[in-house]
Automatic annotation (TrEMBL):
Belongs to the Orn/Lys/Arg decarboxylase class-II family. LysA subfamily. Substrate binds at R274, R310, Y314, E341, Y368. This is Diaminopimelate decarboxylase. The keyword Amino-acid biosynthesis applies. The modification N6-(pyridoxal phosphate)lysine is found at K59. Its EC number is 4.1.1.20.
């Protein structure tokens, strides 16, 4: 039996998933090129005719093929490390469209980004202003900057992924921001370009974005009075997606609320991550065995928390998509992995008749999936495959067992 995962925007038929699982083995990350393109256009179309830059948050999915696809669609990138910058460049991304966020940029990361000629550093503290001014001075360069402001807005999301509250480590408190801007404007090796914020991830309402934006715009006016002109305003990422029954605004609806507030001439920068890739991805695993302890039925997969952390880390509810529809109405089961941790689960109490050898896919796995995976329990990480039309392209090989100890060495004999 075949069905389409329409609400996952991933137009893969059961048969195709089964063939790909046979061909590439499991666990397997599958991405849909068409779904990524569609998600990108959902942001880009409403922005036509406006000065804008869509900077994909690389942390959501840093596979080179994904970055290359987005670069070819015209995207810029939001990076948070030198490693992410190197990936963007290796994938053919344009450094002039890169913004660099993060609270702990090292001197060498700053130098790397300055030499690459990135668009802007999103500076998160006064200490960072000083450090960046120093590094730029040593290189004889001027660093373009934005100041990340913490607007103290409740994003109404999981506390681990809320970033815009006073108690969070991110950005400079909005009340202290004018002083920070004045200082930045006075430093010889910095050039103030803009202001930014990012209040959290997986937001399902527009209201917190609008509240944050209004605070940033008020700050902009205050700065204008001080003679500091901003060229752009960056409202971060954070737009949520539908995993199961969430109803986040569509990018067009979200932008319809934001765009009228932005004065003409000001460039709008966005940093979407999840909204561009989450629903373009599936994690496919195979059932190793099932067991019923009289209290609970467990479906034990060949994939688990080391491949997909979101369920256990955020108690995230992600859709379970049995590849054979006949499995769908089985007994309530916990979907668990082989890792030796009680927290190794992917879904709890889902109706699932899957038995040994059956395939199960987790939807919404295109964002914060592979990138957060680990080799815990010495498990090689999964392969990644991009589906484009009738073709499937292997975009990252499954790790080998030998690669698990690459770079390790035994103690020299004499020291034992
Ligand atoms: C600074 C910054 N920008 C963008 C993002 C992307 O967020 P999302 O994937 O929710 O769009 C994040 C992660 O939350 C972030 O920390
Ligand atoms: N990793 C998180 C989002 C990260 C947000 C980073 N600022 C998630 O899976 O939901």
């Amino acid at each position: 039996m075949s069905h389409h995962y329409q609400n996952q925007q991933l137009m893969l038929e059961d048969a195709a998933v089964a063939d790909l699982a046979d061909q590439f083995g499991t666990p397997l990350y599958l991405y849909s090129r068409a779904a990524i393109e569609q998600a990108y256009q959902a942001f880009a179309s409403p922005l036509k005719g406006r000065k804008h830059l869509i900077c994909f948050a690389v942390k959501a999915n840093s596979n080179l093929a994904v970055l290359n696809l987005l670069a070819r669609l015209g995207a810029g990138f939001d990076i948070v490390s030198g490693g992410e910058l190197a990936r963007v460049l290796a994938a053919g991304g344009d450094p002039a469209k890169v913004v660099f966020s993060g609270v702990g940029k090292t001197r060498s990361e700053m130098a790397q980004a300055l030499k690459a000629g990135i668009h802007c550093f999103n500076v998160e503290s006064v200490a960072e202003l000083d450090r960046l001014n120093g590094v730029a001075g040593e290189l004889g360069l001027v660093a373009p900057i934005s100041i990340r402001v913490n607007p103290d807005v409740d994003a109404k999301t999981h506390p681990y992924i809320a970033t815009g509250l006073k108690e969070n480590k991110f950005g400079i408190d909005i009340l202290m921001a004018p002083d920070a801007f004045r200082k930045a404007a006075s430093l010889p090796n910095l050039k103030v370009l803009g202001v930014d914020c990012h209040i959290g991830s997986q937001l399902t309402e527009t209201e917190p974005f609008v509240a944050a934006l209004k605070r940033l715009l008020a700050l902009r006016e205050q700065l204008q009075a001080d003679g500091i002109e901003l060229a752009h305003i960056d409202i971060g990422g954070g737009l949520g997606v539908t995993y199961t029954d969430e109803q986040p605004p569509k990018p067009a609806d979200y932008l319809a609320e934001i765009l009228p507030l932005i004065p003409a001439g000001l460039t709008l920068v966005l940093e979407p991550g999840r909204a561009l890739v989450a629903n373009a991805g599936l994690l496919v695993g195979r059932v190793e065995m099932t067991k019923d302890n009289g209290f609970k039925r467990f479906v034990i997969l060949d994939t688990g928390m080391n491949d997909l952390m979101r369920p256990t880390l955020y108690q995230a509810v992600m859709p379970v998509l049995p590849i054979n529809q006949a499995q769908q109405n089985g007994p309530l089961s916990d979907l668990v992995g082989p890792v030796c941790e009680t927290g190794d689960w992917l879904a709890k109490d889902v109706p699932l008749g899957a038995e040994e050898g059956d395939l199960v896919a987790i939807g919404g796995a295109g964002a914060y999936g592979f990138v957060m995976s680990s080799q815990y329990n010495s498990r090689p990480r999964a392969a990644e495959v991009m589906v484009q039309g009738s073709q499937a392209v292997l975009i990252r090989q499954r790790e080998t067992v030998e690669s698990l100890w690459a770079g390790e060495q035994l103690l020299p004999e004499a020291s034992c």
